[in-house]
Inverse folding.
């Protein structure tokens, strides 16, 4: 993100030495390191939470798509069953009609 080279770090250290003084510089460096560590940990935590939320949203979308697919499959199954029932009833009706016609012709 930030490209800081050795010369820039050396310049910051020199300015810190002049501003803070040599007695308090180690303490300031420790506190600064502590706060930078905390900031990094916080950023890592935030990134992990964002990733988890994105993953959860993807899962919700997949579940919604799967539910739609299941509804379509259930509808297709019902339609297939209705078609099979209709064919069976139609064949039975045709067979009954043929029997009636044959019985009237025989009389």
């Amino acid at each position: 993100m930030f490209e800081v080279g050795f010369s820039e770090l050396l310049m910051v250290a020199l300015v810190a030495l002049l501003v803070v003084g040599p007695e308090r510089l180690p303490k300031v460096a420790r506190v600064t390191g502590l706060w930078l560590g905390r900031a990094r940990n916080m950023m890592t935590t935030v990134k992990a939470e964002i990733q988890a939320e994105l993953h959860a949203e993807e899962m919700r979308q997949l579940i919604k798509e799967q539910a739609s697919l299941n509804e379509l499959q259930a509808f297709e199954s019902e339609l297939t069953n209705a078609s099979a029932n209709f064919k069976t009833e139609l064949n039975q009706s045709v067979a009954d009609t043929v029997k009636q016609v044959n019985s009237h012709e025989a009389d």
About this structure: The chain has one domain: 26-106. The chain has two helices and no strands.
